[in-house]
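Hey team,

Filing this mostly as a record. A colleague (T.K.) asked me to run one chain through the structure pipeline before their review meeting, and I want the input and output archived in the tracker in case anyone asks later how it was produced. No errors, nothing strange. Just documentation.

Input sequence:
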Amino acid sequence: MEEKNATKKIEPEEKIMHDLLPKEEFDMKKVAIILVVVAILGVGTGFVLAKSGGGGILPGGASSSTAGGVQKGKIYGSNDTKTFKDTAEGVLKDGGIDGEGQYHLERPGGVSQNVYMTSSLVDLSEFKGKKVKVWGETQAARKAGWLMDVGRVEVL
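Output structure:
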């Protein structure tokens, strides 16, 4: 048999991967303008919120700084009674017990009936000396008989 030394012509392979989108050059001028507009809008929004006191608004619609003091019958703080389901009534006083709580409620029955409280939603200092009803979430405590994170306060 006769062997043929045939040389095969190797053709360039087709590209297996190709660009899906045509290459476009970025217009740096447009990108710069967009970034400047976004920055101005962000600073403007922050300025407006700071001037309007937006940071002091509580979920219940009450301002954290009550201009005329607290009003009897008014509720301050959150309307979320599912999270803040525990309630207590008494006169709000300054001071916790052994580092637990910043304030406490004095209730009938003596010191053993006090409710020690903290709050990240309501400024409890505005209610010192007032008879109030509080809604909160009971927290684990080492020294306090009852430690509560208060989310809602009603002045009685």
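Quick notes for T.K.: Residues 54-67 have pLDDT under 50 and may be disordered. The two ends are 114 Å apart (CA to CA).
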